[in-house]
Amino acid sequence: MASVAGKILLIEGKRADYPNFYAGLSRKGYDVELVPNGNTALKKLENVEPHLVLINAASMRTSGRRICQSIGNQNGKLPIVLIADKNAKNVDELEARIVLKLPFTLQKLLNRIRLLIPTDEQDLLIRGPVKLDVENRWVRCEDRHTSLTPRLVSLLKALMDRPGEVFGREELFRLVWETEYTGDTRTLDVHISWLRQAIEEDPRRPRFIKTVRGVGYRLDVDNSDQNIRSRRKLSRKK
Predict the structure, then answer these.
(1) Helix then strand then coil, % of the chain, to nearest 5
(2) Segment (H or E) for 153
(3) Which domain holds residue 44?
(4) For the chain, what is the mean pLDDT?
């Protein structure tokens, strides 16, 4: 049985012509509390403390506006994810943290809600404010949470494994792309740009991923924050 990945309060109807997400989320290890409407959800919140509320408004023939407002009034810090019909209007103005319009895949939903659920930091690679989940492929940096492609994970991990050290462009390209051909490393520059968009407040003036002119790139972070993996190794030796 999959380990519990987080607790979700799911408000979902039973329309046969619209997708339901209870079974899929449960299979992925989430502890899902299913309720049929907003009033039941408000009563449930008096006794349970989910990590987030998922409102499948499309399955209830509603915009989700009243439910979002009611939950926000009861617990303004609780993240809300809203699933809306493809023709729904003005849903981006609601109090939901994330709005997804049908159709979309279960994997897309998983990628979005994963960023809102606290993670055991023992499973993260941490350098300064940059936190990388290699297995689930996402990064957190201060108030930014972003899913990454496998290649971007490999690139960021390489930089995080040797913070403060300058990587030559050819060396970094060989390491991440696992090739000896380094005749054209422009794709590396594109991926660095994408990483900056993921973790930097201002990608044009990066604080963390620095360009070393004529050489390559370097990750600048505050090394006073220990790498979680190092702490785990030390604890195992005791």
Answers:
(1) 35, 20, 40
(2) helix 150-161
(3) 7-114
(4) 87
CA pair distance 85, 18, nearest whole angstrom: 9
Residues in the chain: 238
- Write down which residue in 114, 139, 170 finishes a domain: 114
65 and 142 share one domain: no
Instruction: Return the pLDDT at 230.
Output: 40
Judge whether 148 and 198 are in contact, CB under 8 Å.
Answer: yes
CA distance 168 to 162: 13
Is residue 126 within a helix (H) or strand (E), and if so which, with residue range?
strand 125-127
Mean pLDDT of 184-210: 95
d(CA 213, CA 60): 56
The pLDDT of 86-106, averaged and rounded, is 86
One domain for residues 135 and 223 = yes
3-class SS of residue 147: strand
**CB distance 96 to 87 below 8 Å:** no
Cα of 77 vs its chain's centroid, Å: 18
- pLDDT tens per residue across span 2-42: 345 789 999 999 887 888 999 999 988 899 999 999 999 99
Same-domain status, 227 and 140: yes
Contact of 28 with 72, CB cutoff 8 Å: no
Quote the percentage of the chain above a pLDDT of 90.
61
Cα-based angle 41, 81, 148 (whole degrees, multiple of 5): 145
| Amino acid in the structure at residue 16 | A
